[in-house]
Target: Nitrate reductase molybdenum cofactor assembly chaperone
Amino acid sequence: MPSDAVLYQAAALCLTYPDDDLIARLPLLREAAPQLREFTDHAAVTPLLDLAAHYVEVFDLKNRHSLYLSWWHDGDTRRRGMSLVRFKDVYRRHGLEFSGEELPDFLPAVLEFTARTGETGLLTEHRTGLERLRTRLAACGTPYAGVLDAVCAALPASHPGARR
Model:
């Protein structure tokens, strides 16, 4: 697995709701993706209940820090439905069927897809939303900002026709 793929997979784990599995994997994440050290160091010394409460506060209470990429482009409009279908189509073209509990544009799912396939198109097409999310996370001082910093830094340059 190329180093960016490892980073994308590690970032996906860091951006999901924290549980015992995340805590058990922290030493591996620290070793495999040193770009995420700010977050992994924080998670290693923070009680799980506090991590979970912080995750809910940051990501679940308002769309201000939405982990759903199409929300940044489409908001809560009808157009978002077509964007979600497009995510599923991209997964299918790569031989994957999206069957998660989350919507197909959920950032950890997109990061895992990118890690597995090497296809960065969904991330680069939504770079503007990722950058806005990164800026907002940094402004609120959460360790999750470091995860988005690493993801954004690893993305290839935008290609012509990318969604903005």
User: Anything to note?
Assistant: Residues 79-93 form the longest helix (15 residues).
